[in-house]
Amino acid sequence: MFGLPDPRQLRRAADIARSMGRRRLEQARAERQLPPLREQELFLTTASGYRMLVRVVEPSDDRPRPAVVLVPGRDQDSRIFSQRPYILSAWEVAARGVRAVAFDPVGRGQSWGHDDFCGSEGQDGLRAVLDYTFARRDVVRSRVAVFSFSMGLG
Fold this sequence. Notes:
The chain is an alpha/beta fold. It has helices at residues 7-33, 90-95, 120-135; strands at residues 37-45, 51-59, 65-71, 99-103, 139-148. The chain has a five-stranded mixed sheet.
């Protein structure tokens, strides 16, 4: 009918709302079974010489675990994954036993340089984060994923 929402969209919204409780319950279960989570900040240097902030949220153990590199969308930095509700939270990823690696792209947040909106500097920054992630001894190299949001990878 004219002016009413599409019934499929209403069903999808209801399904999402029903799954929220289950999602929180699963997260609580995962947190009980894992060591406490920790967050650390560090700086990497890109090939162009820019200093980039990297935030890692992870279980506080040294067991080899999968990793996810979280790439923020255009005009955003790594805080999007921890300071407010978003599509995906670094803490939620870490609560599932995965090391979450988020970063401030060149020219955003606490990273140096000029934001070229996913151009060569942005790709160089992502490469530096991937090199760091793959070099870690506590990361299963065959199980590294990259999640990009909005125009995160251009």
